[in-house]
Specification:
- With about 400 residues, the chain is an all-alpha fold.
- Among the domains are: about 90 residues, Serine Threonine Protein Phosphatase 5, Tetratricopeptide repeat (Alpha Horseshoe); about 70 residues, no CATH class; about 35 residues, no CATH class.
- Helix content is about 70%, strand content about 0%.
- Strand 1 and strand 2 form a beta hairpin.
- The longest helix is centred in the N-terminal third of the chain and has 27 residues.
- Bound molecules: zinc ion.
- The site of zinc ion has 9 residues, from loops.
- Its main location: membrane.
- This is Lipopolysaccharide assembly protein B.
- It is a single-pass membrane protein.
- It comes from Gilvimarinus gilvus.
């Protein structure tokens, strides 16, 4: 019903365009008005009222002259088709615009941008890229929009060098990202993606250079510090790795949990367990979280026994109720209980296990996407740095 209503609105626009187009044609060639226009127009109407929108579109494309007065109607039709997912039809409408004379340069560029958007939507990224690269060169008006689309294409294709080069050409003041991230943060993520690949291939020198670039783009990039730590750890440079990990809580406290295992490994390899415990407790004071509670409890268990770990967790549970820490408390008491008490604890653990398994650990604060892995680029809304650990009773 909504589609029919939209078509009717478009029909009114097209009718107006048809009327003016007819007048302008009459002005230009008094008695040579092409009969095909009228024929296609009435055909389109017939298709519309018989609820055959596809045929109606074909008829309207043929019926409506392309000129400055009717351009908006053509663009509205094309964009509506793209939004409805009928990209082939949208491409047809926009290609029809570009093939016709009568548009000025700015209008041609606008039609070209819409056609590029159709190609992006249909996955024809090479064709979209070619149109957008040309627009960047020739159209100051559509340069920024074209660069934004190019960045998205390069991002989808993992072509990070090209993504950075396109982002470098953007106007910082005009840039508005979906997630609220700055242009510097965006470029920093691109450089981190490169570094991540380098680290995976053990190309340490390249990784170092990309991470330095990432920090140049965004000095507060917790991701860059985490990757730097991984790079140093991979080369056995534990003190250097720690210096990067120590920066993370001030850069973005939400991500300090991602470096906890590395922090423990570094202190352990350096043979400094007391310094580790002191650091973890200080961190817990400043940035309370359940993962930190569990980590400190694990250290207490190693150094002392199950009871010391359980007492620590029980104390923290009074301050911050949490399903995950409660579960660990039950686990710690299980081996030390027997008879009826043990059976009840086992039952409680089974129930809590089920609740924990059903709860995701991460959530995008932009679109609400949830999962159990950290994605720097949200798979739901394609925003950078919006997926964070979930807090509260069921999370951190
Ligand atoms: Zn999202």
């Amino acid at each position: 019903m909504g589609d029919i209503a939209t078509f009717l609105l478009l029909f009114l626009g097209i009718a107006a365009g048809f009327f003016f187009g007819r007048l302008s044609l009459r002005d230009r060639a008094k008695d040579h008005y092409p009969k095909d226009y009228a024929l296609n127009y009435y055909k389109g109407l017939s298709y519309l009222f018989n609820e055959q929108p596809d045929s109606a579109i074909d008829a309207f494309i043929g019926a409506l002259e392309v000129n400055s007065d009717t351009l908006e109607t053509h663009l509205a039709l094309g964009n509506m088709l793209r939004r409805r997912g009928e990209v082939t039809k949208a491409i047809k409408v926009h290609q029809n615009l570009l093939a016709r004379p009568g548009l000025n340069t700015r209008q041609q560029h606008e039609s070209q941008l819409e056609l590029a958007r159709d190609y992006v939507k249909s996955g024809l990224l090479d064709r979209a890229e070619a149109l957008l690269v040309e627009l960047v060169k020739v159209s100051p008006t559509y340069k920024q929009s074209s660069l934004e689309h190019l960045v998205e294409i390069y991002q989808d294709e993992n072509e990070w060098d090209k993504a950075i080069a396109a982002a470098n050409q953007m106007d910082v003041k005009q840039y508005r990202s979906r997630s609220g991230a700055s242009l510097g943060e965006l470029k920093s993520h691109f450089a981190c993606e490169q570094a991540q690949e380098d680290i995976h291939h053990k190309s340490w020198a390249k990784a170092r250079s990309h991470l330095l670039e990432a920090l140049k783009f965004d000095g507060k990039s917790a991701r860059a510090s985490l990757l730097f730590a991984k790079l140093e750890l991979g080369q056995g440079r534990f003190r250097e790795a720690l210096s990067h990990l120590h920066k993370v809580p001030d850069q973005d406290a939400d991500y300090l949990l991602m470096g906890l295992d590395m922090v423990c490994e570094c202190y352990d390899k350096l043979g400094e367990p007391q310094a580790l415990q002191k650091y973890l407790l200080a961190l817990l004071e400043r940035h309370p979280s359940n993962s930190l509670v569990l980590k400190v409890a694990e250290r207490l268990r190693w150094e002392q026994d199950d009871y010391a770990a359980a007492d620590f967790i029980a104390e923290r549970l009074k301050e911050r109720p949490s399903i995950r820490t409660l579960n660990r408390l039950v686990e710690l008491y299980l081996p030390h209980s027997e008879g009826r008490g043990r059976e009840n604890l086992q039952l409680l653990k089974q129930l809590v296990d089920r609740v924990v398994a059903e709860k995701p650990s991460f959530c995008c604060n932009k679109c609400g996407f949830t999962g159990n892995a950290l994605h720097w680029l949200c798979p739901g809304c394609k925003s950078w740095g919006t997926v964070k650990p979930i807090r509260g009773v069921a999370g951190e």
